[in-house]
Input
Amino acid sequence: MSVIPGAWRRTAAGAGLLAPDGSVAPTIFAEMSAAAARTGAINLGQGFPDEDGPAEVLEAARAAISRGENQYPPGRGIPDLLVAISEHQRRFYGLEVDPQREVIVTAGATEALTATLLALIDGPDDEVVVFEPYYDSYAAAVALAGARLRTVPLRAPDFQPDLEQLAHAVTDRTRVILVNDPHNPTGTIFDRSVLAEVVRLAEQHDAVIVTDEVYEHLSFHAPHMPIATLPGAAERTLTISSAGKTFSATGWKIGWVHGPAELITAVLTVKQYLTYVNGSPFQPAVAVGLRLGDDFFTGAARTLAHKHEILGTGLRAAGFTVHPPQGGYFTVADASELGGADAAAFCRSLPERAGVVAIPLTAFVSPEHRDDYAGLVRFAACKRIEVLEEAAARLSAGF
Output
């Protein structure tokens, strides 16, 4: 007898979250990380750094532990972090955010996103529009909320959406337009015209815009532009970000969401029954990080861009066609000319063949659209330079 309710089972199966026999489907990330451990391959699959973030941020966490800040923090987050998030949004983007009414600290951006969707979705007739490929938790969260996922494709080489397709996807059934910018997995940054069209469609169809901006400080060619800064957007936008990517502390799981007070209250109503609170000693440390000088933030982006250049050079030398990212942790490359027309099979062979692990882009698309991305592979550049140089050498030797 199944212990999984029928409605959830049907929805999860449709989202690719369950195997055909009804068991939990193992993720390609777990599979490829296990392959790296088994073979000694360099793991450029999962997006976590292999070096620590700024010393003053780490020391602030140690100091908080020593001060005894190890019990439940306030439900919305510690006051100083709420203020630091508000200051950060004003400093970098000119956004005015009330720290007492318009911000919640969450267990990473993933909880912020899940709590937001659970709070906003009314029933199975609601739709969530996302750009595809999409971060894999999006489909899971939409399925958990009981809504329908509608996708708008992003095509190589620039991975910008067709605005007519976007307009076709957004209807009066659309409850949420979910925008990940800078984008994972493609590394694209959406043109202002795309963001403006999202705002126009959200106004036309009375939808809420939800943004995932965890790579906001890892934009390589121009400062990040939150969609909430566009005319008419702030009153219907929930902006999500986190400390993990900016400060190379992905295990801390300190994220946040801010937006109009009534929407934030709805999200808090759900969030308090998920993790309730988290990360007491890490919250004051993140407040320290958000107040670091401009040199830190520009330096983080510059360093990561250099790492992408090292990785891209190695991939080209091995025979890949590289699509250079505009931001974020990842470089997408086409393996078709290397016998990688089936990127999933190619990635499964890569640890033995070249001693490197990567992820097929098909892991980030709906099952019915996987043929459209069959030859594309995602590599993580958020590793030490010497690790990327060794990966580049292995790839060149392997092909």
Remarks:
- DSSP finds 13 helices and 13 strands in the chain.
- The longest helix spans residues 294-318.
- The chain has a mean pLDDT of 94.
